[in-house]
Design brief:
The chain is an alpha/beta fold. The protein has 3 helices and 8 strands, in the order βαβαββαββββ. The protein has a single domain, classed as Rossmann fold, CATH 3.40.50.2020. Pfam families: Pribosyltran.
Length: 182
């Protein structure tokens, strides 16, 4: 299997910092803004954003983790059932600006399911999407990120792998892997 590096640990760190500054520019004092990490991988990105935001500007942020497993349109179409993750949201999003955070935007199905899932917590005023990687030209739904780290052109046969040191990898890195046919 061939691997191509998309972002290394330094570039990921710079991207996380850029996200923070963009959020500060676009959301004033965060009084009416909440951040939701899409479980499971978006929560890892959100944790880094929250940590970096606290270093940059000590502003109280409301954030949580949203699992959209049971809202997916392919939930009952898989051979093996999906494993749900915990939703951790202890506030309402009624009339709030919501920033959904995920690692990779691929077909848009997870984001569509997340929008359905978050309605249980109220009707947001506005929803924005923040992703580390935007896989262009692969959408099944008309979903586009408001904030992205890098846009990549990929084929269906390729996979974007986000590796975190906190999960046992040597360092934070994002790779495109190509499956070699045998």
């Amino acid at each position: 299997m061939q691997k191509r590096l998309v972002l290394d640990h330094t570039q990921i760190s710079i991207t996380i910092s850029r996200f923070c500054y963009q959020l500060i520019e676009n959301h004033d004092d965060f009084h009416n803004t909440v951040l939701l990490g899409l479980q499971p991988r978006g929560s890892l990105v959100l944790d880094r954003i929250i940590q970096r935001m606290q270093e940059i500007q000590d502003v109280p942020l409301r954030y949580g983790y949203l699992d959209a497993t049971f809202h997916r349109d392919d939930f009952r179409r898989r051979d093996l059932p999906l494993k749900a993750n915990e939703t951790k949201i202890d506030f309402l999003i009624e009339n709030k600006k919501v920033v959904l955070v995920d690692d990779v935007l691929y077909k848009g199905r997870s984001v569509r399911a997340a929008m359905d899932a978050m309605i249980a917590f109220g009707r947001p005023q506005k929803v924005e999407l923040m992703v580390l990687i935007d896989r262009k030209f692969t959408r099944d739904f008309p979903i586009k990120p408001d904030y992205y780290g890098r846009q990549v052109n990929t084929l269906e046969s390729q996979h974007v792998s986000v590796e975190w040191q906190s999960q046992g990898h040597d360092e934070d890195a994002i790779w495109i892997t190509e499956k070699v046919s045998k």
